[in-house]
Structures are given as structure tokens and as C-alpha cells.
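Quick start: load a record and inspect it. Here is propanoyl-CoA C-acyltransferase:
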Amino acid sequence: MSKDVAIIGAGQSAFVRGYAGSIRELVFEAFREAVRDAGLTPGDIAASVVCSAPEYDKQRSPAGLLAEYLGLNPQPCFTVESLCSSGTTGLRVAYGLIKSGLHDIVVVIGFQKMSEITSAEAQERMGRGADIMWESPFGSTMPAYYAMHARAHFARYGTTEEDLALIRVKAGKYGKLNEKAVYRKEVSLEQVLNADTVAGPLKRFDCCANADGAGCLILAGADRAREMSPHPVWILGLGSASDSMTLSGRRSLDGLNCARVAAEQAYAMAGVGPQDIDVAEVHDCFTIAELMAYENLGFAAPGEGAGLIREGQTYLGGKIPVNVDGGLLSKGHPIGATGCSQVRTIVMQLRGQGGPVQVPGAAIGLVHNIGGVGIYGNVIILGR
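Running the structure step on this input writes:
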């Protein structure tokens, strides 16, 4: 396992439905927490990577704005986007900047202030994350896309609505304990199954909510990490892949191939396998997305992911605890911030700072972050 780059600081704002301040202030909440966590000052940071999906925020070129506000001038600043996986794409860029020797300490900032536009406008922009010639003009939306994946999984493997509902019940159990989550209450199986349909078979509780939020990660090369941090968390493996933007170009709809390929790369780089992962954060924008992740990441064979949630194996104490911070289904999904929040959760777990949802003895963690409907996929493996 390579231990060349580590995460030495992590921070996150609360995820909320309508943040009253500016994007500067929103990002500062996460940045301040990460800088204090790392025990450094803005002057120690050699470069910044800002991750934000375009057109939700009114500010053009946010990297320059945030570098000024956070005291990061005249260091270089970059903007990175890959839709919902922007945060982990930014981490991959920062890793490369450090490995190349260009910079020794790099900050990754992910954010989104989605409340600056209406829900209808947000849905329209999400639709334009697909092909604007052959798909989005026909009214495709994110719930509809994932509903098609759910139907395909149901048809091929016999998965049921109750299997998906069990995932949402788990999210509520752990989201209740997460002080930074939008939704902090449990839901019953009956509530999930009897909720209004959004795009059949997906119902209201099967879908995550838009949110405003920010996340921040500080990365350092090995020498600086050991010098500055009492508990660096090492980046052991990175995988990244893509797939056709149009669903008609996909081999199948019962899984996300970009996630499978990215996972294979990350496992190979880290020299581990699915059986070695102690805790995982997966991209559960919809309940079916978490179920597919179980299979795409190798935690279960194709078609057997539902067995994990039925048997409680993805709960604390199970074979592979997944989304013990409540996931996107409870935390909310501020697009550019999501990946950074997922990484922060695993960092806290590997430090033994997970509080009431700590996985005992967690030494290796995994983050699975998807952009769009499986257009982009990032998998990151972290270790103590």
C-alpha cells in the first residue's frame, strides 16, 4: 500500500435547506473547521481546488472568489466539476498535484448553495446533466432515471420496493444522530412504503433532498503529513471511470459500470479487496443507488445486494457498515459538497472519532461517489 499522500484536516458545514448567508460564509464554516483540525493557517496552503457543479450558484468562477475570502491569494486556485462527484474529483486532482511535486499542501473545497434557485429550476439543471439533444429535452429527471434502474433491477433479480424501503429506514436511524444532517428523524418501513410516488417505484422517502452545504479536506505529502498531523489518514487507492451520457449507450441498467471499473482500480491500487473494507460511504442519492453500490463494489454478488440490507449486514455491527452518518438520504445532497462530506465521515471513522456511530477498530474505509446517473464514478480507499 502506497502512503504518499494523506488527509490531515477535514471540515463540514451543517447541511440545510436554505442557508441565509453567502457562498463565502457557507464555505468558511467548513474551511475553518478543516484548518483548525489540521492545525495550520491559510498561509500554509500551497494551492486550492474548488468543487462545484455549475449553474446552481449565481457566482461565476467561484475559485477566485473563495481564494480571496479565505486568504489563499496569491496561491493558485482551480475549479473542478463532475456533477455530483465533483468533491472526490477535486480530491483526485489535489492528490495528483501533490504526487507531481508541484505543491505540498492542497485544500479541496466542495460546496453548493442550491437554494439560490427554485426546486423546478434545480430539476431542470439536473436534467441538463444528461445529453441536451437526445434525452433532457424529453423531460428526463433524476428520479425518473434512477426509477428506470430500479425497474431493471427488479425485473432481473426480483428486488422489491420493501428492499429499497429498508435502506431508507437505516438512513433515518443514523441520520437522527448526525448533527450536520438536514433530516434528523427516523422513519418506519410503513411510512416509506406508503409515501407518495415520485417516479415509480421510487417514493418520496426513496429520494434525497437538495441542500446547501460545504465540505473541506486538506491534503499533504507524506513528509509534511507526518510532521504536522498526529493522525493522518492515508489515501491508499483511487479509482475513476466514466460511462455513456445517454442511457441508450449502457450495457445494462441494473448497475453502474463506472462504479464497477472505479472500484476495481481503487482495490488494485490499494492492494485490498471488498472483504477488507471496515466501513463505507456510498452515493445514496436514491435508495436504489445504495443497493446497486453494494453489488458494484463487491460487497455482494450481482442480484444479492438486497440480502445485505434484509439481514442487517450494512448496519453497525454488520459485515460491512454503510452510510452510518445517514447518507445523502438523511444528510441532503449539496452537489459539490457531497463527496467531501463522504470523505470526512470516513476520516473521522478511521481516527476513531465517529462518536455514537463509530465502527469499532475501523482501519480501512471506502468512499463511492457518483456524478449524474452513472456518468462519472469515483472510488477512494483510505487507511489509518
